[in-house]
Amino acid sequence: MSGLLTLRGASRAELEELLDFAQSFVGGSVIHRGGAGGTVTTVFFEPSTRTRLSFEKAAHHLGAHVMSFDAPKSSTAKDESFRDTILTLTAMGTDVFVIRHWLADAAELTAAWSGRPVVNAGVGKREHPTQTLTDALTLRQRFGHLDGLRVAIVGDVGNSRVARGHLAALPTLGVELTLVGPTPFFPAVDPWGVRKSTDLDSELGDMDVIYLLRIQKERGSSAGIPSERGYARRYGMNEERLSMLKPTSVIMHPGPINRGLEIDGVVAEGERSLILEQVANGVPVRMAVLSLALGERR
Amino acid sequence: MSGLLTLRGASRAELEELLDFAQSFVGGSVIHRGGAGGTVTTVFFEPSTRTRLSFEKAAHHLGAHVMSFDAPKSSTAKDESFRDTILTLTAMGTDVFVIRHWLADAAELTAAWSGRPVVNAGVGKREHPTQTLTDALTLRQRFGHLDGLRVAIVGDVGNSRVARGHLAALPTLGVELTLVGPTPFFPAVDPWGVRKSTDLDSELGDMDVIYLLRIQKERGSSAGIPSERGYARRYGMNEERLSMLKPTSVIMHPGPINRGLEIDGVVAEGERSLILEQVANGVPVRMAVLSLALGERR
Amino acid sequence: MSGLLTLRGASRAELEELLDFAQSFVGGSVIHRGGAGGTVTTVFFEPSTRTRLSFEKAAHHLGAHVMSFDAPKSSTAKDESFRDTILTLTAMGTDVFVIRHWLADAAELTAAWSGRPVVNAGVGKREHPTQTLTDALTLRQRFGHLDGLRVAIVGDVGNSRVARGHLAALPTLGVELTLVGPTPFFPAVDPWGVRKSTDLDSELGDMDVIYLLRIQKERGSSAGIPSERGYARRYGMNEERLSMLKPTSVIMHPGPINRGLEIDGVVAEGERSLILEQVANGVPVRMAVLSLALGERR
Lengths: 298, 298, 298
Known about the structure:
The structure is a homotrimer.
Chain A: E1 3-4, H1 12-23, E2 39-44, H2 49-61, E3 65-70, H3 82-91, E4 96-101, H4 106-114, E5 118-123, H5 129-143, E6 150-154, H6 161-169, E7 176-180, E8 195-197, H7 200-203, E9 209-212, H8 228-235, H9 239-242, E10 250-252, H10 265-268, H11 275-297
Parallel strand pairs in A: 1-5, 2-3, 2-4, 4-5, 6-7, 6-9, 7-8, 9-10
Helix pairs in contact in A: 1-5, 1-11, 2-11, 3-4, 5-6, 5-11
């Protein structure tokens, strides 16, 4: 593995080994000084404080130095090209890059330009692979296994990096995915041949997991739906729908949530919700991924 | 103590013990690695670089990891609610929160939502308790005691978090407070029954400490006064007024100062001024407060 | 040495000793914990992420704590004066200041106000001394010596902090400087009595180093030239000009580069280019300078 650009093509054994390694960091508030060391550089061309802080905390626990490059308030103001930014940060001593960018190729380009391991923290309309691993780990903790779990991904799958990562890896791990939402939300091209449904209510009784995606107003999700109110009525997770689930079923969401839109607050904070477990598992998953990436550099 | 939300209700013994503990960190540029450890998360919904840096330096000296959440450039841009921000940062591994917010209940809410110790770094129109402790420590260092000290707080008390903290704690420590300023600057409601005066000049000869508040133009302080020039003439601390003080009396100000408005530069930097001692003491006071808060979490 | 304000007046022996010390940090990704310790405060009144990150990485490698004071998003919003900012950061426990400011006297003023060692990271129209040391180190690594090297500095010397530092120190180290560019780009006053040329092409065959300056549109460099295209045609470093150099000659640039203006991308990334070596050497040079400055404080 050279950093983590994509989960596509990863075998079941590789994914499970990665989850095992991540699990070994759970609960470890111990700082692994004398551990990996090195320098992790976060390069965010789109703001995402929660993802950045999660990576930086993971790097800190590994004893690594963090350089934070935030595009808007930096040398891009002088028109420094993306390529030159990466070459400069590499020369300055970056061991591993963590990159978020609106450009789909940004992670691959960074890897090619820098010759360093790169962790994709969300690029273009591609994956957000550490979120997918986090969610897989969270499910495995809850159910003890992933094999045969029925997961409905509800929302704007076509615009979702999270869904793209889930489609790339969860079926490999034995998960049965169903995409749920209004037709305009389904991906235009579907190489996965995954099951789809426009009727959430008819799916609820069969699912182990209702995975809600954020309606991303800033990415034009709203354009695919007649109205937010209409969406909430048909696809929003509320108490009534919660009562239609099997007793063991759970609710997930990658955050940040829109309360009252794709999920009601009482559901998000209810005992069926794994949302905060997802957040918590983000740190050990990123520790595992960064640890491997830093290890390559030694 | 669960973090530090308020100084109201604290006993004299409790306050003195806290000051003793803070004093033990004075001059200690030594880094207490292997000390408290843990993660301190600063959440600033209003900018205040000096307060944030002081808390972060204190956390660093205790060997803690710092997560800085600055509201404006972060996920609030995606409308993440304050509550969800706190729940997320908690799940991410926050041990202690340090919070500044325009909302009066922000610190209590954070404590309730997170179940973590919270240090109030200035909320709504409530207190800024670490500033009050810092000032108390500074006075104790200078006078050897607090009992019987006469302190005039000059300025917009009604809008001042600093004054509110002083009113909550300094009388308990034996300090005799007098509020000085134009009538519109006095608090609308006065549960403290504290002495007031609109005539600074007649007070100068009796006071041990002239504690000047910042005219906070950004909080509308100016609305209470006919003109800045008029205010400076009646209440600004200048060399002439300095000469009317007792030889042992001192000048304090929580910063940042408005030179030529509530205080002349020559006074702020004169030998009677304790302003920089106040800044310096901010770090050991915050080390003490964070150390106790982190200790609760172990 | 009290920090590093200027290279003017430094003797050859002093400069060479400093370069030797910097060289000792090259390749040292080892963290010198238990090393200098202390607190390094970066105060940037102009944004420059690459310079700030380079200093902060150097400080980290020395085991120092870093406080980052970014002017725009901080207490200057409350009109805190520059002087008060420095006095406050000093009282808060700064051991060494690193300062960038539009004001020419900013570094000297900071040193005078704080009584602390100050490293000039670019002020007014003065020097950017750590860049000059970085470039000298890079040249010494490449050529084995500096004595007798012929260096052409091409561009807006009059507005360049980098050129000003080079003029202050490189001749002392035995370098023969030539300034190249359109007449309006030469400094209005020339105390150095340095050789000048408006014709780059006639110089190429004689030079060991072509040192290209950035056309700083944000500082009005463009005002001195009829058009960017015309400048690129006469002074831009392209493959054709590269072929006119001696086989051992090299290209340098302090970055960030304007591709297609003062330098073509293919030249910047060609094997003659030392640009990334310059970036890499920035860290050990700053480690050396900060290490000495921190040492003064112990």
